[in-house]
Here is the input.
Amino acid sequence: MANIDSNGSRVSLLRRLVYASMIGAVLFGGGYAVDKSGGIAYIYEAIGGRVDAEAPQAIYSREQMQADRKSYKAGLVGERPQMPVGANGFYQPPSEDAIPDSPYGDAVRRGRAIFTDTKINVQDHVGNEMACVNCHLDAGRRENSAPMWGAYGATLRTGVKPNR
Ligand code: HEC
Here is the structure.
């Protein structure tokens, strides 16, 4: 099988394949070398990017926060309470077992049911099979999937305060 190149000579398919593989290998090798040289990482860091993942922060449990809050409230002693952070370095929402047995807890459970079984619990408002939890993973508790932590502040902004 042969073909005519732009100069009018015949070039075999095999030769074309060999040339193409050589060019491919050179491009791949070059790209690999550039990546390994660290030059790109250097430029990325120079403009403010972070190449290494952030080192995991120290865990600060919710229990620790509550203890610190108590003593701090009592007389501004001890550590100033912080936001609870897990081993993954993100905010740790309270566990589901912590939902209280109260009207407030009932409202939380109702909200969770709507969130996870949206079609069943608010039929009139949903036109498909989707549930909030399909996008807001782990019932809105998972980092990096539009978690509901931020919505708490937004709710306070609108003046609706949870009645505990
Ligand atoms: C198809 C995917 C999808 C579904 C289903 C979905 N959401 Fe979202 N939602 C998003 C995305 C993406 C964002 C983030 C938008 C942004 O940050 O600009 C968001 C943002 C939000 C926010 C704002 C969060 C914040 O931090 O301010 C709330 C509240 C929210 N969604 C509630 C819901 C509720 C309640 C349902 C179910 C009735 C729902 N979402 C269903 C994708 C979805």
User: Anything to note?
Assistant: The first strand starts at residue 2 and ends at 4. The pocket of heme C is lined by residues 118, 130, 132, 134-136, 146, 148, 150-151, 154 (CB under 6 Å).
